[in-house]
């Protein structure tokens, strides 16, 4: 049974509920394929069904919840074809972003990327999985932002919910966090050297390795 998570006033209730459900999906409290019920969620948060409905609608758009033909809501269940499709999109979009970042990043932005890598390594050494995932995501978000291409950023944001979901899966495996960090360091060095082609190559290799590991994790999950 979930512990009560009191709502706060600064954000609209539906956004608080949306974020809370999202965190429950990412931390495994809600399992893939679990059914969710508006009435139960509304009771849990001591609110009406209206903000719950809005939160669910937003999460369906993000892809983290799925609505079937009978309007039944369930948690997104990863599948191999979907992860391959998503990572094809990631590779295409982020390759463009890292190429532009290698050409356009300011010295201050390079320092921010390096700082993120240092904070990631500290989180790994302190064995903080959620923090590691957050810094991994931040590194990629910085590359998107520093590309200076607003439209590209909007396209990537449309995938962010499921991308983060797969990042949580991707950290599974012995020494996996260190392997991811090494990939990020290789990408960073290519950006710092102002070598767009090498930056693209390193990012593609890194993302393909992510995909390979996630496919392995999903295959193990399906065998259980």
Structure write-up:
- This protein has 224 residues and is mainly α.
- It folds into two domains: 13-75, Winged helix-like DNA-binding domain superfamily/Winged helix DNA-binding domain (Arc Repressor Mutant, subunit A, Orthogonal Bundle); 80-223, Four Helix Bundle (Hemerythrin (Met), subunit A) (Up-down Bundle), CATH 1.20.120.530.
- 72% of the residues lie in helices and 4% in strands.
- It has ten helices and three strands.
- The chain has helices at 13-26, 38-44, 49-62, 80-104, 107-125, 129-146, 150-157, 160-170, 176-192, 196-223, and strands spanning 35-36, 65-67, 73-75.
- Strand 2 and strand 3 form a beta hairpin.
- The protein is globular.
- The protein starts with 12 loop residues before the first helix and ends with a helix.
- The model has no long low-confidence stretch (mean pLDDT 92).
- Pfam families: FCD, GntR.
- This is GntR family transcriptional regulator.
